[in-house]
Amino acid sequence: MGGEWQVLGKMVAPADPNVWEKCGGFWLSFLSIQNLIMDGSGEIDGQGSSWWNAVQFNKCNNLQLSGLTLLNPPNAHIQIFGTNSAYLANLHLNAPEDSPNTDGIKIGASTYVQIHDSVIATGDDCIALLNGTNYINITNIACGPGHGISVGSLGGNGDYSVVEGVRVYNCSFNGTTNGARIKTYQGGRGYVRKIHFDKITLIAAQNPIIIDQNYNAHGNSNINQETSLEVSDVTYSGFEGTSADEQAITIACSASPGCLNITMYGNKITSSAPGKDVFASCNNAKGTSIDTVPIVPCLSSNSNVQL
């Protein structure tokens, strides 16, 4: 089963979610539709906080989504779960900077997803890659405002979580609260590996590069848990631009197993404030840093090092 669904005008969610009770908290929900094509030049307006989620695709293999504008989601603009093969392109996603939990594109338990040539301005992650998300290609995304492009959060409540095979290329972060971000909870299990952020433009972005293995969205105390997911084979290359924070690079890894084979090369991050310097903080990580500003203290500058 498949077909093409075109949006050419403007769709506006009902103000009262009680008149739309059968979709389980979603306004538009697509379940187990194979080869679905959704495109057009129209707009989808979620009307803000009246709804929990705007548009969900669940188990929609070979999905194509392009050309649309999505406005004012109550939660995520677009959610994709349990899907093998999806192509998203030429999307415009817009929500106020201060709107909570309004992820642009949220993906979980999905493989072989491509996201290209889109503009995302929102109050949370521009793109969030959750547990079970593998082999993702993200190219030519303008993110800002928002919380950057994030792997995670992962490992909450001690869960086993995995993300593998992500490439983020030729993207920009403009005034975002994070840039290239990996976030895991203490006490979680599993791994994040084979992640590559390449050719990234920074415009007064906070936390341009951040691995946070002490992530805590709800303020609960996990300070006695020293383990987290294993983060390995992560590469940052071709970052250029300005940081709104003095601490431009944060590699905050758990004591066990820590972060392994972290590679940085060809990065130049300066301060957005004239005359200010930037620095990097690094704990419990092993890897190499070559031709990178600022210097990352816990990574070796020897390009021949064997890890």
How would you concisely characterize the structure shown here?
The protein is built from no helices and 25 strands. The chain is mainly β and 307 residues long. The protein is globular, with a radius of gyration of 19 Å.
Tell me the layout of helices and strands.
Elements: E1 3-6, E2 10-12, E3 26-31, E4 36-39, E5 43-45, E6 53-58, E7 63-66, E8 69-71, E9 78-81, E10 84-89, E11 92-94, E12 105-108, E13 111-121, E14 127-129, E15 133-143, E16 149-154, E17 160-174, E18 180-184, E19 189-205, E20 209-212, E21 230-243, E22 247-252, E23 259-271, E24 279-283, E25 285-293
Parallel strand pairs: 1-4, 2-5, 3-6, 4-7, 5-8, 6-9, 7-10, 8-11, 9-12, 10-13, 11-13, 12-14, 13-15, 14-16, 15-17, 16-18, 17-19, 18-20, 19-21, 20-22, 21-23, 22-24, 23-25
GO molecular function, one term: polygalacturonase activity
Subcellular location: Secreted, Cell wall
Family: Belongs to the glycosyl hydrolase 28 family.
Number of E-type strands: 25
The gyration radius over C-alpha positions equals: 19 Å
Mean pLDDT comes to: 91
Give the topology string: H per helix, E per strand: EEEEEEEEEEEEEEEEEEEEEEEEE
In terms of DSSP E residues, the strand content is over 45%
Helix content: under 10%
If you had to describe this structure to a student in words, what would you say it looks like?
This protein has 307 residues and is mostly beta strands. The chain has 2 domains: 1-124, Single-stranded right-handed beta-helix, Pectin lyase-like (Pectate Lyase C-like); 164-217 and 225-301, no CATH class. Helix content is 0%, strand content 55%. The protein has no helices and 25 strands. The chain has strands spanning 3-6, 10-12, 26-31, 36-39, 43-45, 53-58, 63-66, 69-71, 78-81, 84-89, 92-94, 105-108, 111-121, 127-129, 133-143, 149-154, 160-174, 180-184, 189-205, 209-212, 230-243, 247-252, 259-271, 279-283, 285-293. The strands form 2 sheets. It has a 15-stranded parallel β-sheet that branches. Strands 3-6-9-12-14-16-18-20-22-24 form a 10-stranded parallel β-sheet, with no helix packed on it. It starts with a strand and ends in a 14-residue tail after the last strand. The relative contact order is 0.09. The model has no long low-confidence stretch (mean pLDDT 91).
